[in-house]
Amino acid sequence: MREKREAMDLSLRDASKLSGVSHTHIRDIEDARSIPSFEMVMKFLKTYTVDIGEFLKQTGYLPSNVEPVRESKRMPIISWTQAGNWQQICDTSQYGDYGEYIETDAKGIFALRVRGESMETEFHQGDIIVINPYLKPEHNDYVVVSNEEGKATFMQLKKYGRTRVLHPLNPKYDDIELRKDTEYRVVGVVVEKKKKYR
Fold it and tell me: Where do the domains of the chain lie?
């Protein structure tokens, strides 16, 4: 559990807010001083976006050669304004009911409908992308970012040593170097694309 929490750059208090379990209890579980209930385990799997099949394989309760049946879930498609103002410690219920949902088995939290042409030829207007705001962005990941005004967009993250660049796939647009004076915040990592055909 500690490894998963630290991989997501979450403090004990962050994990507590997301899971609803006190930070002292989480610490006791991580230090093997307490054993979580089944209900608590399920909360942690959701908090750390861990697939239950993978969890059962890693803990030896499911043979590694057995592929679990993946459950599809309903995920809201939120607006780019909502994405731009997304805070890591929140959930999509704060935005109320949505007009649009998708079915997916991806480990995401919300979805967005692609707009504009900056990410063509890989992503086109109307495609739907699924976002996980709890993954640590790595080199070549597609990421949703928000500027200081709360305007969101998405690009590919490139890392060259200590230099980080937001790279649009369409050559008509320029790269943006992430410096201390550029107020871009990574909202989340794109984990799935659903293609629109009509």
Answer: 2-58, 75-194
The topology (CATH level 3) of 75-194 is Umud Fragment, subunit A (2.10.109)
Cα gap 63→81, rounded to integer Å? 44
Mapped onto helix, strand or coil, the DSSP state of residue 185 is: strand
Beta bridge partners of 190: 131
How many separate helices (H) and strands (E) can be counted in the chain?
Answer: 6, 9
- The one-character DSSP state at 72 is P
In tens, the pLDDT along 9-67 reads 888 988 888 888 899 999 998 998 988 888 888 888 888 887 777 777 777 666 666 55
Q: How far apart are CA 9 and CA 180, in angstroms?
A: 20
Phi-psi category of 149—alpha, beta or left, where left has phi over 0 and alpha has psi -120 to 50?
A: alpha
Question: Encoding tokens for residue 12?
Answer: 């004990």
The one-letter amino acid at 5: R
Q: What is the pTM of this model?
A: 0.62
Helix pair angle (12-19, 38-47), 10° resolution: 110
Sequence letter at residue 102: I
| CATH code of domain 2-58 | 1.10.260
Task: With beta carbons less than 8 A apart as the criterion, state whether 104 and 112 touch.
Answer: no
